[in-house]
């Protein structure tokens, strides 16, 4: 399994597992589970639970308790937290910013397009990822009997190819000079600063003024055990974290590329906004935002 597949599968598994827990949820994703066969879902569950000694050497409990610990502390916080942030921002961009199309970069197994609310039916939703990734996703959608609505478009593109924007612009669902919402979740970790700058410059060219971009990004490396384990896992999956940024550095990078950093959330703020209700309802299973991860909402100037 290549790193792209591993990353998207674990992210979707984490959302599916979290959605199966008692309410309230940090983020609701009733579609993610349908992307897996029962055998595959059980296999991933067993593999994750079997790694409890790596995550928590002092853990004592059943396999199911081990899986819950790993999901709550390692797997779920990143994908559910950033998805909640992005979709909250999308709703605001449509209601107040007049967004008419949604670009989901590095779409992987994102499921917004397959559980979209009524108001989203007026949007064009373009999922952009490597052709092989999108092919696998479409196969999983078919096996899971998940309908692909008419406003959803698949755009096979390689972000390392400078001409990927040409491919996007040729998609019949893409409309130039239209207020746009763009999400780049889970992508910045694996881009060098130069590559991230090129990505933002490409978005500056593509998006009209007033468009919104949301993404999560790594802060400078910390020395906590959690952060070191996360970076070690990423490296083992062949997707080592490439760079880290302070808020000031990110604000300057965005400004250089024609974007205003409109909203910035550090881990403490992420936990307060998105995880507090879950923590209150499940005090025996505390979940918090990942360390050394920040969320950003930027507006094209």
UniProtKB/TrEMBL annotation:
| Transferase among keywords | yes
- InterPro entries reported in the protein's UniProt record: Ppm1/Ppm2/Tcmp, SAM-dependent_MTases_sf, SAM_mthyl_Trfase_ML2640-like
**Pfam families on file:** LCM (PF04072)
Domain of life according to the entry:
Bacteria
Name a GO molecular-function annotation. Answer: methyltransferase activity
GO BP: any one term: methylation
Per the UniProt record, which EC number(s) apply here? 2.1.1.-
Alphabetical UniProt keywords: Methyltransferase, S-adenosyl-L-methionine, Transferase
- Which family is this protein grouped under? Belongs to the UPF0677 family.
Any idea what job this protein has?
Answer: Exhibits S-adenosyl-L-methionine-dependent methyltransferase activity.
Q: What is this protein called?
A: S-adenosyl-L-methionine-dependent methyltransferase
